[in-house]
Design goal:
The complex is a heterodimer of chains A (240) and B (190).
Chain A: H1 3-11, H2 17-29, H3 31-90, H4 92-110, H5 129-139, H6 143-156, H7 160-172, H8 176-189, H9 194-207, H10 211-224, H11 229-239
Helix pairs in contact in A: 2-3, 3-4, 4-9, 5-6, 6-7, 7-8, 8-9, 9-10, 10-11
Chain B: H1 10-14, H2 18-36, H3 43-62, H4 73-92, H5 125-134, H6 139-150, H7 155-161, H8 167-189
Helix pairs in contact in B: 2-3, 2-4, 3-4, 6-8
The chains are: A mainly alpha (240), B mainly alpha (190).
């Protein structure tokens, strides 16, 4: 096998262990080989950096696409505002019908299940398999399974985030009452996930068309926390 | 909404489809922004970190550093993102908002996969020069060298993925490309 062949295999990660030894030997004894290797290694970094620039440019394009879409939807809001004033003119019936549909879309636009940020599934395969099981189910949106497992876990070890993800699972199952009870408990008794729970309480209130309650939660969020501050502000404006 | 990413395999991604590249980006974007909000970074910074995390993930797939998904794509993105945010905060020496617990941020050892290449090295002078002249090469050379050095293709795989007909053709095309590159750099110096 010639030296060039060794380099081919090096860069496609396909050196056998014998070739590997040969390769290392050459690096130490053959200056020309070493220079060629360094050149190609540098080239590899250069190509990667070039590809990275391309990818970044592509993503920026995607991003500006997303932004212009959002601008369009803000624009639609002002259309909605005009429609709303017309609705007011038409009468209270029109007005209430208009807003009753709006609550649902406000909820749906803003509801996202909270991602699993506490438990890294890959690295912990051998530890506490029950917790792993729960989060695997949660990430796969099998909320009922997740819930059952969280239930067992919270009896075993009352970690505070378990309660939060239990509430999330209820929300995923659209059992708002149970979710609400748990979120409320968290805001009263816990230190973590308080802002997050407040946010979800606000969303539930919106879904239940309880404007006053929703405003209270959102104002609390805007004043006291940073989590979803901008979104909360937007929602407050939309609820005005 | 129908979610695609649960069924995406490494092989799908490695095809290099622009559409899939975009789709995965869009699908995880809001989730990532939501998650990163608690670090009290401005929105533009969050987007920037998200893009960098996504590119790091993508590069690792393309370069064969991730051979098999051991967790969901979003887990990879969050894990890399956390690491980048930590780095950013350290660099900015920024105080984090009071309702955030610094111990939540993970270090590299706790990355979803500690073998990931995080793109941390700055380019050397030689590499900058190579990058500059790489772009001056013809399209065919760029593609070939990219398959070889970025994607880590073997000569056989290059034949399958391109119009080259035999190993010898690939090899001589590649060495011609390298020769041109070297010449252009030398001429610029001399």
């Amino acid at each position: 096998m010639d030296n060039q062949e060794l380099l081919y295999h090096y860069f496609s990660n396909s050196l056998t262990s014998e070739q590997e030894i040969l390769f290392q030997n050459l690096l130490e004894t053959d200056a020309k080989f070493k220079a060629q290797f360094e050149f190609e290694k540098d080239l590899k970094e250069a190509v990667k950096s070039h590809e990275t620039d391309n990818l970044k440019a592509k993503l920026q394009e995607v991003e500006s696409g997303i932004n212009s879409k959002q601008k369009k939807s803000i624009f639609n809001y002002s259309n909605l505002a005009i429609a709303a004033s017309i609705a007011v003119l038409i009468g209270w019936f029109g007005y209430s019908t208009f807003f009753s549909t709006n609550y649902t879309s406000l909820y749906e636009d803003n509801y996202n299940e909270y991602p699993n940020t506490v438990f890294t599934i890959t690295r912990s395969e051998d530890q506490n398999s029950l917790e792993r099981e729960a989060f695997v189910a949660y990430e796969a949106k099998n909320y009922q399974t997740a819930l059952n497992t969280f239930e067992v876990l919270s009896e075993e070890s009352p970690k505070d985030y378990i309660r939060f993800y239990k509430a999330q699972s209820y929300l995923g199952l659209e059992d708002n009452e149970k979710a609400k009870t748990l979120f409320k408990q968290i805001t009263k008794e816990h230190q973590n996930f308080v802002a997050e729970s407040t946010w979800y309480l606000a969303l539930i209130a919106i879904k239940e068309k309880d404007k006053t309650q929703a405003r209270t939660y959102l104002e609390n969020l805007v004043v006291n926390y940073d989590y979803n501050k901008d979104k909360a502000q937007e929602l407050l404006e939309a609820l005005n | 909404m129908q979610r695609v990413q649960e069924n995406i395999t490494i092989e799908d991604l490695k095809q290099g489809s622009d559409l899939l590249f975009k789709k995965i980006y869009e699908e995880n974007r809001d989730k990532f922004i939501n998650f990163a909000r608690k670090y009290n970074l401005p929105q533009e910074d969050i987007i920037d970190v998200y893009q960098d995390a996504y590119i790091i993930f993508y590069n690792n797939v393309m370069q064969g550093k991730i051979e098999k998904f051991t967790s969901s794509i979003s887990t990879y993105l969050f894990s890399i993102g956390k690491y980048l945010i930590y780095d950013k905060l350290k660099k900015n020496n920024k105080t984090i908002n009071p309702d955030f617990d610094l111990s939540l941020i993970k270090k590299k050892e706790e990355l979803v996969d500690s073998d990931l290449d995080l793109n941390e090295e700055e380019l050397t002078t030689e590499q900058i020069l190579l990058k500059k002249y790489f772009v001056s090469l013809g399209k065919k050379c760029q593609e070939l060298l990219s398959l070889f050095y970025y994607r880590g293709y073997t000569i056989k795989e290059i034949i399958e993925a391109s119009e080259y007909k035999s190993e010898n053709v690939v090899k001589s095309a590649k060495s011609r490309c390298l020769k041109t590159l070297k010449e252009r750099i030398n001429n610029s110096n001399g």
